Structures are given as C-alpha cells and as structure tokens.
User: What shape does this take?
Amino acid sequence: MKRINALKLIAAQFEDELVICNIGFPSRELYAVKDSVNHFYMLGSMGMASSIGLGLALAQKRKVVALDGDGSLLMNLGSLVTIYNQKPENFILVVLDNECYGSTGSQCTYATTVDLSRLAAAVGFKNIFKFTDPEKKLDLKTVLEVEGPVFIHVKVEAGNADVPVIDMEPEEIKERFMVGLK
Amino acid sequence: MDSSEAVYKGLKKAGVNFVVSLPCVNLGKIMEMVDCDPDIIHIPVTREEEGFGICAGAYMGGKKTAILMQNSGLGNSVNVLASLYKLYQLPLLMVMSHRGTKGEFMSAQIPMGEATPGVLDALEIAYFLPKTPEDACKILSGAWLLSEMGGSPVAMLLEIEYW
Ligand SMILES: Cc1ncc(C[n+]2csc(CCOP(=O)(O)OP(=O)(O)O)c2C)c(N)n1
Ligand SMILES: [Mg+2]
Assistant: This one.
C-alpha cells in the first residue's frame, strides 16, 4: 500500500483525535487527502513527532495520534522509552514504515533489518498492532478503543505522491490548531 | 534565599505547570522540588531535544512549560529550537546550569561552556545571567510573559558562581 493511501484510510477513521504529522511528504500527503483543524503539520524538527504528541497527550484529555516515520523514530528512539514510562492513556503512536527516508529520495533506513514492532515490545509496550498485508483493510476500530499508549506499525511502500507543499504559514498551522483545541 | 529555591519560586510565580528535565549536579534540588509539587507535571527525558518536543506539545495543549537542563544539552537541541520553536514561534523557559564557566573543575565542560552564549545568540534566544538568587527569582517570575509575547524561548544561564 502506498503511504498516501494508508494516510487516507487512517485519517478517515478519525473523528475528534488530535493529529501530529511528521515532516516532509507525510504532512503534504495528509494535507492533500484530508485537512482539519485537528491537524498539526510539522515542517521541521525531524524526529520530534512522537515527542510533540506525547507532550500534547500529557497536557490535556483528548486523544492524540502522532503519525511518525521509520527514519524519524530511529532518530529519536529514546522517545519510546519515555512514552512507555509516562503511560499516557490517550496516546497513539503510528509509524508509517517504508523502510526508507522517503522524503529525501527513499534511501534505506535500518528499519530494513530491525522490526520496529519488536523494538516497541522490548521497551514494554503492551498494545502493539502491526499492519503488513496491503490487502487487509486498515481497520482502527479496536485500536481506537484500547487504552494507550498504543503502538501501530503500518508497513507501506516507498515513494511519495505528487502533492503540493502546504500553503499555510507555520504560525497559521499553530494558531488554527490551538484555537481548535480550546 | 537558597539558589535552588529561588529558581523553583520564580517558576511558580511565572505560572509554570509543566517541566521536563535532564539532570546536572547543580539542578538536583530544583528537580526534587518540581517533582514533589502536585501542581506541576514533571517529565524526566532521555535527551534534551526530546524534552523540547514534549514541551512544544504540552504548550499547545495549554500548559506553561519549562526545561531544566545543563548547557551541554543545548548542543543536542539546536535543530528543534530553530525548526520547531523559532519557526512556529513557541514560548518556553530554559533554565540552564551553565558549566564550563568561572570556577569549573572539569576541563571537559569548557568547550561547550564557552560556545553556549554564541549558540543562543545564533538562535536569537534572549538569555539572562542572574548573579544572585533574588535576581533569578525576580527574572523568572516575569519570564513566561516575555517568552509568550516574544514568541520565542527565553533562557536563564546559571553559572557556577551562581550556585
Ligand atoms: C535533522 C534532520 N536530518 C535530516 C533531514 C532531512 N529529512 C527530511 S524528511 C527525512 C526523511 C524522514 O524519513 P521518515 O521519517 O522515514 O519519513 P518518510 O518520508 O519515509 O515517510 C529526512 C532525512 C531533516 N529535515 N532534519
Ligand atoms: Mg520512512
């Protein structure tokens, strides 16, 4: 499954969830398939999606979903340990794993040899869901019901969709998101 | 006033209610006070950069945030400060133990200690250098407003002689 299709399927199942989306093409693709006041698009700070999501989940009660990438998670692996220890019930970490740095030309990451779900399990995560079969529908019904922190591992194909850059200023992204939260 | 208590009181007066930390020997007492405070969420982190990410999310979720860190951790966090905090104009109080300053006994601390003010200048992050606990407390009390109005982190460098 292409990443943009995974994003489309995932975003369609969100109602009130707050979404922190990873830098680069993931944010551009999400913006193209579905935009919402509940979306915060990262334009920089590679690796920080899971941390921003964790802070947001700890600060308020609504459910938070961080849409991370394999390369970005590998850049901030300590985040898994902190999330596990803080045990935010309202936090879901989704890793869109294409085994590469997709946004910069699909150079391989070490996710080619390391199973990120097993890594999360070794850290101690109890609720881990792995979606590998491209034909199997990405159904998040049970996932959205279990208590967090939840780790969702979605295997996707390498490659980016032909979508434009996000035509919002960083401050606009922040203001809209924060106003929506009030 | 005790040097650690002054920082804690200043943060309280500023209304800070969410703190991330990574220890320096000089920060131990403040970390304990923050940890014992039922009105402050305290999150120990594995790397300062991660702490900045967590505080950004917490701020958007309505909290007033601060990080307790050694100046070495500034080196671990330059990109998140530039491409998250500066880019989106986010506030944060950075309380930094500034090692490698006058009286330092570990030569290993000196290079990053000397680089620290220049790194903050390059990031256009304003910083204060209080000499006494009274100063630190007073500056911190007003620092959140300054940070939020300026749309930028504000730092406090606590040199070895401060403690
Ligand atoms: C600190 C830093 N290093 C490198 C980059 C360049 N960069 C931007 S996006 C990206 C790839 C991210 O990979 P991944 O998280 O797997 O997401 P994907 O694009 O594959 O979905 C890289 C390397 C950057 N923006 N910041
Ligand atoms: Mg990737």
In short: Chain B has one domain: 3-162. The mean pLDDT of chain B is 98. DSSP finds seven helices and six strands in chain B.
